[in-house]
Automatic annotation (TrEMBL):
<dbReference type="GO" id="GO:0009448">
    <property type="term" value="P:gamma-aminobutyric acid metabolic process"/>
</dbReference>
<dbReference type="InterPro" id="IPR015421">
    <property type="entry name" value="PyrdxlP-dep_Trfase_major"/>
</dbReference>
<dbReference type="InterPro" id="IPR049704">
    <property type="entry name" value="Aminotrans_3_PPA_site"/>
</dbReference>
<keyword id="KW-0663">Pyridoxal phosphate</keyword>
<keyword id="KW-0032">Aminotransferase</keyword>
<comment type="similarity">
    <text>Belongs to the class-III pyridoxal-phosphate-dependent aminotransferase family.</text>
</comment>
<dbReference type="GO" id="GO:0042802">
    <property type="term" value="F:identical protein binding"/>
</dbReference>
<dbReference type="InterPro" id="IPR005814">
    <property type="entry name" value="Aminotrans_3"/>
</dbReference>
<dbReference type="InterPro" id="IPR015422">
    <property type="entry name" value="PyrdxlP-dep_Trfase_small"/>
</dbReference>
<comment type="pathway">
    <text>Amino-acid degradation; 4-aminobutanoate degradation.</text>
</comment>
<dbReference type="GO" id="GO:0030170">
    <property type="term" value="F:pyridoxal phosphate binding"/>
</dbReference>
<dbReference type="InterPro" id="IPR015424">
    <property type="entry name" value="PyrdxlP-dep_Trfase"/>
</dbReference>
<dbReference type="GO" id="GO:0047298">
    <property type="term" value="F:(S)-3-amino-2-methylpropionate transaminase activity"/>
</dbReference>
<dbReference type="GO" id="GO:0034386">
    <property type="term" value="F:4-aminobutyrate:2-oxoglutarate transaminase activity"/>
</dbReference>
<dbReference type="Pfam" id="PF00202">
    <property type="entry name" value="Aminotran_3"/>
</dbReference>
<dbReference type="InterPro" id="IPR050103">
    <property type="entry name" value="Class-III_PLP-dep_AT"/>
</dbReference>
<protein>
    <recommendedName>
        <fullName>(S)-3-amino-2-methylpropionate transaminase</fullName>
        <ecNumber>2.6.1.19</ecNumber>
        <ecNumber>2.6.1.22</ecNumber>
    </recommendedName>
</protein>
Length: 450
């Protein structure tokens, strides 16, 4: 019997109160809005969440990577309370406010590149992506946008078009935006068995270049948009040589390179921006998620000449860069520096990989362990040699872990990846208990599915 100190689930899920809320939810909220665990939050702090029935959970999901500084960080709460007392919203397009300017200055200073930059603030990651596309098209005078297989960029029309996975993100929602193409992206774990890593990387670089002979002419492309680590795609980490080759190709052909840092940004990979691991400087960067610690805020950071290509009134939005989001984001950046969360991310990731590697010696279902910093994933397979995806086993492990008090998410094209997005303020004891729960779930579920 696993003894837990921080996680405690004393009811079935959903419990009595959550069950009533779930009935109300199904009556009024479309079923298309999914949920990971059948209960409702009452309180959250740091890396722990309590539901309405008093059950407590260790959070390895982080609201899909939005809570790197933890739930309800005191500095974030203080900043929000102070802002509410002053003003909530005036609309930056109507009467401007200083927090927008201060946040833009800090983001420009932190982001890669020693050139002059400007920053546009919006609400969501999808909005940031859409605006990056608008800016790239305006600057280059071209229409084409290239993304990658297994990539995810959002759910609005353009962002959904740019996203790779058909179900559940695109199925039945067409027609899609025109002039969007998907280039091949490396999947190192699934490279042909006869290929070495170096040969595979060289092959994928050549396939990327070939793409511009068979699918889209370079002179028609405004931007290539890449996640430094693919998020929804299963935390797939490309070799630096591939990323550098893509950037070099963009420079050769006047194509803008856009780093989609919405899930990789602000400490998740052990750096402020995931692209820092590749010695590549993007022309544009999209940010959101953990920038706001749970408040809606996003942005596009880019070279000044690129960002100034659009004319007055051509960029903006009613709530874009709201005062509350800006103040929360400024507090996040302060916390990251003071609590050294980039360093903490590397320590967390190292421990998670260490535990998973230990488990792989016992459980044959663990096929691959990968990631950067605390952006770590494990791919679950039914056959290590054939690397056959074990989707049902993955779902069972996730459900069992949740029943034991661990919030954890799946991902991947085949639905067989378990990803870790725990707040970077998680304590060592909480981290170890969460990993113990995951191990117990794997132990219980594996005999039934493998």
């Amino acid at each position: 019997m696993l003894m837990t100190k921080y996680a405690s689930v004393q009811t079935n899920l959903p419990g009595p109160k959550a069950g009533e809320l779930l009935e109300r939810r199904h009556r009024i909220v479309p079923d298309a809005v999914s949920y990971g665990i059948p209960t409702f939050v009452e309180h959250a702090e740091g890396a722990r969440v309590q539901d309405v029935d008093g059950n407590t959970f260790i959070d390895f999901a982080g609201a899909i990577g939005t809570i790197n500084v933890g739930h309800c960080h005191p500095k974030v709460k203080a900043a929000l309370h102070e802002q509410v007392e002053q003003y909530i919203h005036t609309g930056f397009n109507v009467m401007m406010y200083e927090p927008y300017i201060e946040l833009a200055e800090k983001l420009a200073a932190l982001s890669p590149g020693d050139f002059d930059k400007k920053v546009l603030l919006q609400n969501s990651g999808a909005e940031a992506v859409e605006n990056a596309v608008k800016v790239a098209r305006k600057y280059t005078g071209r229409q084409g946008i290239v993304t990658f297989t297994n990539g995810f960029h959002g759910r609005t029309l353009m962002a959904m078009t740019m996203t790779s996975k058909v179900k559940p993100y695109k199925f039945g929602f067409g027609p899609f935006a025109p002039e969007v193409y998907q280039a091949p992206f490396p999947y190192p774990y699934r490279r042909p068995m006869e290929m070495s890593e170096e040969a595979y990387n060289n092959y994928m670089i050549e396939e990327f270049k070939k793409f511009f002979l068979t699918e889209a002419a370079p002179e028609t492309i405004a931007a290539v948009v890449m996640e430094p680590v693919q998020g929804e795609g299963g935390f797939i980490v490309p070799d630096p040589s591939f990323v550098q080759a893509v950037k070099a190709f963009c420079e050769e052909h006047g194509i803008l390179f856009v780093a989609d840092e919405i899930q990789t940004g602000f400490g998740r990979t052990g750096a402020y921006f995931g692209i820092e691991h590749y010695d590549v400087v993007p022309d544009l960067i999209t940010v959101s998620k953990s920038l706001g610690a749970g408040t809606p805020i996003s942005g596009v950071i880019g070279r000044q000449d690129i960002m100034d290509a659009a004319g007055p009134g051509e960029l903006g939005g009613t709530y874009g860069g709201s005062p509350l989001g800006c103040r929360a984001a400024l507090a996040v950046l302060q916390v990251m520096e003071e609590e050294q969360l980039n360093e903490r991310a590397n320590a967390i990731g190292g421990r998670v990989r260490e535990r998973l590697l230990h488990l792989s010696s016992t459980y044959e279902c663990i096929g691959d362990i990968r990631g950067l910093g605390a952006m770590v994933a494990v791919e679950i397979v039914s056959d290590r040699e054939q690397k056959a995806p074990a989707k049902d086993l993955t779902k069972a492990i996730l459900a069992n872990a949740q029943e034991r008090g661990l919030l954890v998410l799946g991902a991947g094209l085949y639905g067989n990846v378990i990803r870790f997005l725990m707040p970077l303020v998680i304590t060592d004891n909480e981290l170890e208990e969460g990993l113990d729960i995951l191990e117990q779930a794997i132990h219980v579920c594996t005999p039934q599915y493998v």
